[in-house]
Amino acid sequence: MSAQEFFAMGGYAFYVWTSYGLCFVVLLANIVLPVIQRRQFLRQLALKQKRQNL
User: Fold this and answer.
1) How far apart are CA 45 and CA 38, in angstroms?
2) What is the pLDDT of residue 36?
């Protein structure tokens, strides 16, 4: 089997590589979104504490 045949996936390359791409995007979102949400939460918590200390 050649590399070209491997990447062609027997004529199903579009579907296979699209599936891999979507899976990668979902996995990346599962890592990035919680980090962003944690930062926002900590920022809001710090502002709330700052308001209470005034």
Assistant:
1) 10
2) 98
Residue 33 is predicted with a pLDDT of 98
Contact predicate 16/9, CB 8 Å: yes
CB atoms within 10 A of CB 36: 9
CA distance 29 to 3: 30
DSSP string covering 1-54: --HHHHHHGGGTHHHHHHHHHHHHHHHHHHHHHHHHHHHHHHHHHHHHHHHHT-
Which pLDDT tens digit goes with each residue over 1-54? 889 998 888 899 999 999 999 999 999 999 999 999 999 999 999 999 999 987
Q: Which two tokens stand for residue 26?
A: 């979902």
